[in-house]
Amino acid sequence: MLRASDRAPGLALADGVVLPHDVEIGANVVIHPGTTLGAGVRIQDGAVHGKPVAHGGRSRAARAEPPPLVVGDGATICAGAVVVAGAAIGPGVLIGDQAYVRERSAIGEASTVGRGTSIENDVVIGARARIQTSCYITAFTEVEDDVFVAPCVATTNDTTAGRRGRDEPLRGPRLRRACRVGGGVVLLPGVEVGEEAFVGAGSVVTRDVAPRSLAYGNPARHVRDVADEELLAT
After folding, report:
1. 3-state secondary structure 130-180
2. Residue 162 has what pLDDT?
3. 73 and 148 fall within a common domain
4. pLDDT tens across 37-70, in order?
5. Is 61 part of any domain?
6. Are residues 138 and 87 in the same domain?
């Protein structure tokens, strides 16, 4: 049950949720049952933590009750963001204004999710990833460490556009370590963008992009290799 709390203006806090002494909470925040917050977490106005899972009548998503939401030390959940029960937010992560993170998704240490971006269920994002404004990261996508995803990138996971067989799984894209995906790129189901690859803005990725490959176009094609001086320092 949610109850009003005097810890912050308009805070609705579930019974049993413990707030560390150094958590910063804005106005009109909602924290649902089971949510665990680490030390030094910052929650801005109107953010919702541990929202219960809701499914459409025809959804095939797993119906098992998810575990509680966990938000790591020093994470920031910005204004109006919604983080669903069952998500795991790592230390130092920033979830931007009005972003949405669904159940069974995990976001690694020091990663950033931009304003208005949707992280769907069962997504895994590594450490230090940067996912910019208004991206759609579809269910079952894998994003490895140090990946950069520019604004308005759209990922997809269903080759049949909603008419797959009951036993046919969804397959999101896989973005390998330190790859870069330019603005407005569309990635088709199951494609892999290789380590240190770069997909140019506006491209449609219909097949795998090799490691250290620069590719762009519709469909995206190899143009050249990524030069040594463009590689991320390790």
Report:
1. EECCCCEECCCCEECCCCEECCCCEECCCCCCCCCCCCCCCCCCEECCCCE
2. 84
3. no
4. 999 999 999 999 999 988 777 676 777 788 899 9
5. no
6. no
